[in-house]
Amino acid sequence: MGKKELSYECVVNFLWQRVPPRDFLNDDYDCGPILTYDSQIGIADEIEEIKKHNPYYAKLFLQKYIKLVEQRNSEMAEVLYFLYCNGDVLSSSEEPSSKPDVIRYLVRGANKPTTREQDTVVIEETPRVISALGTTGMRTWEAALYLSAYLNSRNISLEQQRVCELGAGTGLVGLALAKYYHRRIAPVREIIFTDISIDLLEKIQKTLALNNLSMTDPSIAIRQLAWGSTNVSDRHFEQHPPDVDYLVAADVIYDSDMHAKLCSTIKDFLSNSTKLAIVAATIRNEKTADSWHAELRRWFHTNWSIKHRSTDPSLSHLNCYLKASTPEIRIYYIALDSGLL
């Protein structure tokens, strides 16, 4: 297999997603395109911004990048040395994993990568938090990035449709639809972000502002919603599900104990006005996936399918970086009308 070409656009998006430099400045990639003088100047401009949020990452990148430019005997842009010798960068050390960072995700899907702001979603999050009580919604997980790219690759038409994101967390999927699909592909009638956590919903409001979006936009809404609380005949009933055409969710099946409540809520949406539920899941544990499948059969019988699966998401054509160790990602379709599966 030949080397993968590393374009300037790819590098900029890797930098903003905080991809470890060792993962792309290596012999697996043809780094030639990013060693030109013009590329160095452009990359320096990006690092100037990145160091304001994460000087240690800027330091790690500049160490490898400067060494690579020197090894290839390319003309060196002096600004790279100046950036590396900057006091904040040179003296920086790794911050605790709980410290927030500002991450920017490319959400153009299968379309050619760009560095344009309107093709990305910016989120302040804690990307290095693995998992702890109450922290799963504080970072963006792989299936959310994958589902955002999948939907923005026009795999389904959302024009003038109402969409609800269930268990939104950082809100990447809804944000990707609001910022890219709604503005660049076709207008979406409404996008509703839901989560049980008030703290996360308040954070999504701040994230909207980071992306030049606003709650004053009639196409955007935020609602608190707990799984298992939407069935009017159940003693735990709190509210009816929103009237939407499509329900989307990503990385929401990690806890087997919540599968029944999740399926109950999906069923309530489908029994109301929702045509199709689209759930993306990273298969980290086969027993958890088996539990999910068992609940799908119990609640929906045969009215669900694995519409798409990627056994090696790192090789996806969807232009979203996923590390080589990322487990299989599946996209499930659930609908009362089997013709939609």
Automatic annotation (TrEMBL):
One of its GO terms (molecular function) is S-adenosylmethionine-dependent methyltransferase activity. It holds the Pfam family Methyltransf_16. InterPro entries: Methyltransf_16, SAM-dependent_MTases_sf. The gene is Piso0_005330. Signal peptide: none annotated. One of its GO terms (cellular component) is cytoplasm. Gene3D superfamilies: Vaccinia Virus protein VP39. This is Piso0_005330 protein. It comes from the Eukaryota. It comes from Pichia sorbitophila (strain ATCC MYA-4447 / BCRC 22081 / CBS 7064 / NBRC 10061 / NRRL Y-12695) (Hybrid yeast).
